[in-house]
Amino acid sequence: MIGLLGKKRGMSAIFDNGRLSPVTVIEVGPCPVVQVKTIDSDGYNAVQLGFGKKDPKRTIKPAAGQFKKAGVEPVKVLREFRDFPGEVTPGQIFTLDIFKVGEKVDIIGVSKGKGFTGVIKRHNFHRPNQTHGTHEAFRHGGSIGQHSDPARTWPGMKMAGRSGGGRVTTKNLQIIGLDPANSLVLVRGAVPGAPGGILTICKAKKGS
Questions:
Q1: Could you give the residue range(s) of every CATH 2.40.30.10 domain in the chain?
Q2: Rounded to two decimals, what is the model's pTM?
Q3: Would you say 71 and 64 are in contact if contact means Cβ atoms under 8 Å apart?
Q4: Which CATH class is domain 30-94?
Q5: What CA–CA distances, in Å, run from 81 to 69, 190, 203?
Q6: How many angstroms separate the Cα of 51 from the Cα of each of 32, 34, 80, 100, 191?
């Protein structure tokens, strides 16, 4: 899987072939190779990439030793990419040059946290009638279980609770612009998370 790490900068809109398209601006890379894992030593093939500068004084000693061994500066974020193609060595730097305009990518991020929400906002329930005897239950979820058999609420029942703040993958977003000088990638549409959130950008597994 080929991919890089980046940071969501925000959203904008550009004219693409005469059509106004919403775009997300992502700062991508540079991503140094911190570690290369192999089947012989680790049981699987993977490349560990880093992103974002980190103050060496705030780096714990085990991590500092790992960065020193790879010959890279301390980084804030580490992610593994399984089965990264080609010959990769620690200390190697990957930039947005691996992407090109027009290709599709999958973007992984953490969605915005919504806090504790009800079933209408969390699970897209619709409210019942506000007349014909309905009272004090306009936004409730209704029955959550059975009677004497099985006399319990089944696991996974859709109920009120904490919403958002989870890992989300948005697939097949098209790259419509690259700015290598500023390490920026423009993709059509929205991506998970708030501005400043860390994103994983991979070449799309499906689609063309």
A1: 1-29+96-123+157-208
A2: 0.83
A3: no
A4: alpha beta
A5: 20, 23, 12
A6: 7, 10, 12, 20, 19
Can you tell me the distance from the alpha carbon of 177 to that of 22, in angstroms, rounded to the nearest whole number? Answer: 12
pLDDT tens-digit series, residues 124-167: 999 888 888 878 878 888 888 888 888 888 999 999 999 999 99
pLDDT of residue 146: 81
Residue ranges of the chain that CATH labels 3.30.160.810: 30-94
**Based on the number of CB atoms within 10 Å of its own CB, is 25 exposed (0-12), middle (13-18) or buried (19 or more)?**
buried
Instruction: Report which of 86, 85, 53 is spatially closest to residue 72, judged by C-alpha positions.
Output: 53
Residues 51 and 76: their CA atoms lie apart, in Å, by 6
Per the CATH hierarchy, to which homologous superfamily does domain 1-29+96-123+157-208 belong? Translation factors (2.40.30.10)
